[in-house]
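Please discuss these two lines.
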Amino acid sequence: MEKPEGYNAMSESNRQKSNAGNEFDGAIRSELDMLCRIGAIKGYLTNQNLNHPEYAYEKQYLANYIITTNEDKYIAVRSTRSFRQDCIKICYYDLDGVARFANFSEDLVASIIVVDDTELDSSGFVNIREKFRNGEYYCPATHLFALSEFIHFLTEYRYHALSDSTDDVDASIFESLMVAEPSGSAYGKAGNELERILADILSDYKNLRAFKKDENGALPLFSLILSKLVAENKLSTDDIVRVKASNTIPMLNSGGNPKADVVVFIELLNGETLIETISIKNTKANRVSCHDYGIDDYIRVLDIRNSRLEEYIKWFGEAGSAKNMVKLFKPGYSLEEFESELLKKKEILVEWALTGAHDKDNLIDSEMQVSRYLLIRKENIMQFYNMIEYIQKLDAFTGSFGLPFGWTYPSKQKGKRIQLKVPIILD
């Protein structure tokens, strides 16, 4: 075919690359625009340059997108169509600078590199990412995605952002926790208040100083938590130099939230730092939702692919109740067998539902994301448990299918997700 006059192969190649780049960026912006419209995020900025704090140059580090969540946390995204080493190392450099030096770095819940879907066919990308997830390869990002995977991440994030609401938070929370905040200013979203307040209380050195003089001298919530952490780690109060806590926990690989709501760092005289994680249940109810995952996630984490238990889980997901589930059974299947097979996976399921453990595909930093303690606030009663201790208490409860949980599905998610509800136990 004869080329038109003035045709230049290099120019045509550049035009095609430009069009592909526009489509790539357009897909990301379209998804983020939709999240803004439906209220799943507060907003986002594009192509933000940041400086190193010790230098005047203003374009040291680049984030193609900075997303602000409804909880005033941040997601930094560095996008590039190619995973070529010369391209990707620039992205590493940029995200490392953002994570260390941005004025929002302490509230950064995810730093993400996004490449084109064509890289899914590249052994270089696939192998490096596998090494990254296995801890064999350093990457300053928390997440490494192809474009379609990033869109899936945002879809999962959207679901949790619009459905998560901390159980029954009310204005009395400020008084009942005796919040040490002189201004009395309200926090943003009710569902995030308790986590922020707890992090502030645990980080306040005045509480630690009072606690070291007299374990009952600090704010009650501080004493409740620190007394248990000191005892279970076999510490003396004199061993503690500083306590710092944060409700900024890295997001799961899926885009969902980890079970840990607050992470506590206890700095010791010997130079060590203990890291403990806390999940919070704040409610007036006797049972609360503790687990909400897709049907295939249950099959994946319980490792029951191609088994009869997989069929039962799918039937429950489709039916949404034991009564309706039975109608789907093939000859030779029964609720009794379902319960028997499920009990073989009880330990994994209970620990996954309450602590977040065992989900190796979604955990990025298990030390920060898996919860080892549980704080319960019901009415004006506060209790603090080691998760192992609480799981043992649940043995006295039988919900559905021989486990301590109530089984149901979230609103409008029948056939897609299974939700578990856990009893609230107070001594």
